[in-house]
Amino acid sequence: MRIGIDTGGTFTDLVAFDLTQGSLAFHKVSSTPDDPSRGIIEGVVALLERAGADPEALELLVHGTTVATNAVLQRAGARVAMITTAGFRDVLHIQRQDRPRMYDLRARRAKPLVARELRLEVAERIRFDGTVAQPLDVAQLDALVEVLRQREVQAVAVGLLHSYANPEHELLVGRVLNERLPDVAVCLSHELAGEAGEYERFSTCVMNAYVQPVIQRYLERLESGLRERRIGAPLFVMKSSGGVMSAESAGRRSVETVMSGPAGGIVAGAALAKAADADAGAEAGQPNLITADMGGTSFDVGVVEGGSVPLARDTEMGGLAISVPMLDIHSIGAGGGSIGWLDAGGALRVGPRSAGAVPGPACYGRGGELPTVTDANLVLGRLGESSLLDGGMTLDVEAARRAIHDHLARQLDTSVEQTAEGMVRVVNAAMTAAIRTLTVERGLDPREFWLCPFGGAGPLHGAELAAELGIGQTVVPVAPGVNSAVGLLMTNLREDRISTFVRRISDTSGEELERLFGSLEEEAAERLSRSVNGVASSPAGASGVRLGRTLGQRYLGQRYELPVEVAAGSLDLTAAVASFHGEHARMYGYAREEHPVEVSSAWVSAEVDLQPLRLPEAAPAAVEVPAAASRQVYFDGNAVATPIFRRDALGSGASLVGPAIVEQLDSTTVLWPGQRLDVDRHGQLMIGRLER
Amino acid sequence: MDPVSLEIMRNRCKGIAEECCAALVRASHSTNIKDRRDCSVALALPSGEVVAQAEVGTPLHLGVMPGVIRSILHHYPVEKMRPGDTYFTNLPYPEGPGHLPDLSLVSPVFYAGEVIALTASTAHHVDMGGYAPGSMPFGVTEIFQEGMQIPPLPVVREGVFDDNLLRLIEQNVRTDYEVRGDLMAQYAAAKKAEERLQELLTRVPAAELVGYLQAILDHAERCMRAGIAELPDGTYRFEDFLDDDGVSDDPVKIAVALSVDGDELVADFSGTSQQVLGPLNARITAARACVYYACKAVIDPDLPTCAGSYRPIHVHAREGSILQATYPAAIGQANILTDQRVVDVLLGALAQCVPEKVCAACSGQMNLINIGGIDTRPGATEGRYYNYVETFAGGQGACHDLDGEDGVHTHLTNTRNAAVEVIESTYPLEVMRYGLVPDTEGAGRHRGGCGMVRELRCLADRTTISMGSDRRRFTPWGLDGGHSAAGAIAHVTDADGEQRLLPTKVVVELRAGDVFRVQTPGGGGWGAPQQRDGAALEQDVADGLVSPDRAHEVYGGR
Question: Is the ipTM reported for this complex over the cut 0.85?
Answer without folding.
Answer: yes
